Amino acid sequence: xxxxxxxxxxxRERAILAAALVAVTALAWIYILQLARSxxxxxxxxxxxxxxxxxxxxxxxxxxxx
Length: 66
Hints:
The chain is an all-alpha fold.
């Protein structure tokens, strides 16, 4: 690479950096979507399961007696 070619590349460093950030972000999203797709929740039966928030469960905790 000659000196003028290197100077031209360095002038476009913001565009190169932006393209690299977009590529890394896209790869991260692809990885996350593949992980989400691989989580098979079909075998879990949650029909009778009642979820309770932690705050409510703490409020309903029995009081300690001295």
